[in-house]
């Protein structure tokens, strides 16, 4: 069973378990077999959704996610990995494309990997909500068949070509939502910043509240951890 425990910044907020699901592909590998100076590694892309615990963490303050079964994936990530000879592990980094969330994890070939994750507070947010968080836990690989069962699709659906199409669709929706949110925020700031020309400096208050995020906005953070075996192509190539 995948495991992650998240603690939000808000005082007295409880630590919450959750289990997101990542599908990653679009890998570009280093040419380490012919270039002896090249490190062994790759870069790629991911999409994600919650496997368990989505409703609870959204209610606690995770931004940009809707626990909606009709939406298979709701956000995109970038990912990279490099083999560290000194420790004999692959070290991974992953990040939300529209958020300041960073995840680190380490792969020594076993089916579970320890993780650290953190999300820092946005500079443009002034309301006291449970946004920043810290997470520890583990990632668990899944086979293609297990992933297909969870997504309620056939194993043949989970191809690199299909991933590229899914990623492009989710990425477009994510940035459309982000642009819409930023436009709404700017319009709100403009309307609430209509100041009387006779006001003194001490009278001027500009409402910079950006708390009107919809739960589906791709501009906010969410808890996530990898539970997919779809990195297996990378492990097979690396001989793990």
Fold and architecture overview:
The chain is 23% helix and 30% strand. The protein is an alpha+beta fold and 240 residues long. A 9-stranded antiparallel sheet has the order 2-1-9-8-7-6-5-4-3. A hairpin with a 4-residue loop joins strand 6 (89-96) and strand 7 (101-107). It is globular and about 55 Å long. The chain starts with a strand and ends with a helix. Residues 195-240 have low confidence and may be disordered.
Descriptors for this entry?
single chain; nine-stranded antiparallel beta sheet; 9 strands; 240 residues; alpha+beta
Blueprint of the fold:
Elements lengths: L2 E6 L7 E2 L1 E11 L11 E12 L1 H7 L14 E10 L4 E8 L4 E7 L4 E8 L13 E8 L3 H8 L8 H33 L39 H7 L2
Antiparallel strand pairs: 1-2, 1-9, 3-4, 4-5, 5-6, 6-7, 7-8, 8-9
Query: Helix/strand-derived class?
Result: alpha+beta
Principal-axes geometry comes out as globular
Strand element count: 9
Spatial sequence of strands, sheet with the most strands: 2-1-9-8-7-6-5-4-3
Tell me the Rg in angstroms: 20 Å
Order of helices and strands: EEEEHEEEEEHHH
Q: Estimate the mean pLDDT confidence.
A: 73
Largest sheet, strands/sense/barrel: 9 strands, antiparallel
- Estimate the strand proportion: 25-35%
Q: Please give the count of helices.
A: 4
- Poorly predicted runs: 195-240
- Determine the N-to-C terminus distance: 22 Å
Please give the share of residues in helix: 10-25%
């Amino acid at each position: 069973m995948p495991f992650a425990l998240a603690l939000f910044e808000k005082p007295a907020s409880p630590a919450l378990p959750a289990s997101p699901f990542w599908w990653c592909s679009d890998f570009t590998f280093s040419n380490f077999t012919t270039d002896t100076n090249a490190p062994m590694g790759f870069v790629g892309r991911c999409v994600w959704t919650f496997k368990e615990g989505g409703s609870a963490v959204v209610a606690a303050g995770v931004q940009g996610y809707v626990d909606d079964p009709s939406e298979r994936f709701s956000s995109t990530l970038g990912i990279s990995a490099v083999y560290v000879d000194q420790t004999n592990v692959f070290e991974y980094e992953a990040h939300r494309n529209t958020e300041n969330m960073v995840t680190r994890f380490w792969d020594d070939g076993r089916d579970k990997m320890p993780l650290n994750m953190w999300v820092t507070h946005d500079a443009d947010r002034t309301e006291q909500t449970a946004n920043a968080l810290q997470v520890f836990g583990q990632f668990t690989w899944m086979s293609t068949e297990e992933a297909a069962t969870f997504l309620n699709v056939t194993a043949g659906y989970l191809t690199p070509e299909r991933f590229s199409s899914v990623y492009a669709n989710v990425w477009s929706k994510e940035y459309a939502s982000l642009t819409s949110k930023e436009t709404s925020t700017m319009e709100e700031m403009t309307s609430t910043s209509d100041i009387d020309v006779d006001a003194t400096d001490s009278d001027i208050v500009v409402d910079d509240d950006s708390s009107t995020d919809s739960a589906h906005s791709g501009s906010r953070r969410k808890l996530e951890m990898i539970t997919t075996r779809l990195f297996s192509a990378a492990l097979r190539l690396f001989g793990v």
